[in-house]
Fold this protein.
Amino acid sequence: MRRVRLGLLASAAAALLLAGCAGGGPAQPEQGVGTQDDWTAVGGSTDEASYSRLSQISADNVGKLGLAWSMDLPDEVTLESTPLEVGGTIYVAGGHAAVYAVDAVSGKLKWKYDPQTWKRRPDKLNFGANRGLAYEDGRIFVAENDGRVDALDARSGAVLWSADSVPEGPGYQFNNSSGAPRTMNGKVIIGGAGADAGGRGFVTAFDAKTGKLLWRFFTVPGTAEQNKGDAAMEAAAKTWGPDFAKHTGGGGTVWNGMTFDPETNRIYIGAGNAGGYDPTIRDPGSKGDNLYTSSIVALDANTGKYIWHYQENPRDSWDYKATPNMVMATLNIDGKPKKVLMHAPTNGFFYVLDRETGKLINEPKATTFQNWAKGIDLKTGRPIENADIRYEKGRTEIWPGTIGGHNWQAMSYSPKTALVYIPVHQVGALFSRNLADQTDDAVNIMGLVVKPIEKQPGDGKGYLVAWDPVTQKEAWRVTHDYVWNGGTAATAGGLVFQGTADGYFKAYGAKDGKELWSFDAGLGIIAAPMSYSVGGKQYVSILVGWGGTSAAMSGVLDVGWKYGAQTRRLLTFALDGKATLPKEPGRDMKVAALDDPALVLNEADVMAGKGLSLACMSCHGAGFRGAGAPGPDLRESGIALRLDTFTQMLRQGRLERGMPQFGWMTDTQIRQVHAYLRARAREALGLRKPVAPPAAKATPNRPANAKGPVTY
C-alpha cells in the first residue's frame, strides 16, 4: 500500500491547473480553457462546469478503478475544497487555508504552507472552511479566514505577496473568506462570508503579480455619500429603506460562486442572502427588493463596473442565496446556439440566463419540492410568490429550507450528454416570531426563530439529479439515504462522480444514472472530485473530510461520524489501482455522555445558557449535539465536565486548532453555558427531560459583544 502521512509540517504555498470543458447542447463542440490533462481551477476551467475531457476511465471499465494512493491529513477536520492539478502537481486547501503541494503520481508531499491565521487574527477564528484555490502563471492563490489573500510560488510554496481583501472601518468585523479565489487575465478576485451576522457583501480584485488592490464592488449600498456618483449603488439604494444601515450591513456576501468569462472579460458573481433574514428588522418601513442580495451580478473584469444583474429572490427572507456555482455553456435553444449561464441556487429553481443580457432564456423549473412560489415569470424574470411566505402571520413553513435545494457543493455539466448533474437536498425550514418554537435545534437570527423541518415526502434525503437545461426537465435521479452529500464531476468517459454523507465515493453512468462503481472512503464526503492525466494515465482525486455545516444543522445532518475518530485524507484513483486504506471506526449514533451527579443545575442558568450556547453552535453543534462537527461533542468531553476546566478552555481557547478565546463572556455567562451543556448531557443519558422553550424574549444568536465571523 502506498500511503503518505502528514504531520505538523510548515513551509509555504502551492499551485494548480485545470482540465475542463465548457458546454454546449447536443451536437455542439466541446469548449474549455486549459489543457485536457490538467485541472487548473476549482470548477475545472473558467466555465466552472466541473467537466473533464479525459475518457480513459469510462463507463465500460470503471469497474477496474482502484485506489492509486492516499495521503493522510491529520491536522485537518472539515475538507470542502476541490483539488487543482497543474503539470504533475496536485494542490489542495485545508480547512484553515493551509496549502499542500503533492506529487500527482506518487502522492508524496512536495511542500506545505500554513498561514497560521490564528497568530495574526485570533478574533477571526472559526470552524475552518475553505473551498479551494486558484492558479495562474505559476502562482497559487489562497484566501484565509481573516480575509487575506496570499499568492504563493507554485514550485516552492514561497509567499510572493499577501493582501487584505476586507475594507477598513466598522461593520466588517464579521467578514471573512471561505471560498476559492478566481483568476481573470492577470487579476485575482475574492469575496467573503458574514451575511448572517449582518455583514455587508463585496468582492475585491487584486493584481495577480503584485497584490495591488485594483477595484472593489459592493453588493449592498452604503451611505448616500458613499453611493454618490456610483450608478449601481444609487440604483440599489432605491430598493432599500433609509434606515437599514442602522440595523444591519445588508448581507449579500459573495462567499462561493464566481465565474470568469474570458470572451467578454466579465466576472459573474453570486451574491448571498440578505442579512438578517427578517425584512421588517433588516429594512424597517420598506418593501423594496434589497438589491443586490440573492442576485447574479455581471461586472467588467478590468474595472469592476456593473453591467447587469438578475435577482433570483427579491427581498429575500429565507436565507436564499445565489452563491452556488454558475456554469457557462453554449446550448442549442430553438435550433440556435445560445451562450448561457446556468444556475441552481438555493431556492430550488434552475435558471438559464443569456450571458450577454442577464435575461431568462427559458422558464425556470424546480429541481426539488418548493412551496414559496407558483413559478417564475418568463417576461419579468420575477418569482410569482405565494401568500404569507414572509411570516406575516408570525410563522411560515417553507421549502427549500436554509440549506437550500442546492448549496455550495458543485454541480457539473457534460457537453456530451447536455445534462447538468446537481447535488440536491430536501429539507424545509420553520421561520417563526413565536418564541415557543425556540427548541434545541433552532437558532435565533436577530429575533427570528429558524429551524429545519421534515414533513414532506422525500424530506431528509439527498439526491443526484440529472437536469436537461434546454427542456427544463429531470432526466434521472438517484436517491441518497442522507441529506448532505458532496459535489459532482462529469467526464468525457460518460461518468459522473460524487461522494456521499455515509462515506462512499461513487461513479454513475452519465446518461442513465446507473451506479457503476463504489469505494468505501471511511468518512463522509462533502467536497467535489476532479480528474487529471499524467504520463498518459488518468486519475481521479477527492478530499475526504466530514464537518462544516453538519454542526449548525446537526439534528438533520447527523449521520454518526464522531469528531476526530476518522482520518481526513486525499484519495487518488486510477485503473488497476491496488492501494488500500486501514480500517476506520464506523458511524456511531450513540452518545457517550459524561455526568457529575453531584452537580446541581440551576434552571435559570440552564435557560440563559441555552441562548448563549448558539455562539458555540458552528463548531459543537446545535444544542451541543456534536454530529461529527468541526469541534468535539462536548457532552462527551472530560474538560467540559467541570466548570473550572471548562472556564479555562474558553478563556485560553485552542487557537492553533481554530477555537477562539471567549473573552467577551463573563464568568456568569460561562457558568450558564456550562449548566446548559450539563443539562444536554443528562438528556442524552436519559436522566433529564429536554429544556423547554423560553417564555420570555430569546437571546439573539450572536450577543452584541461576540467576537469572530460566521462562516458557511
The chain has two domains: 3-575, 590-712. Residues 163 and 411 are 31 Å apart (CA to CA).
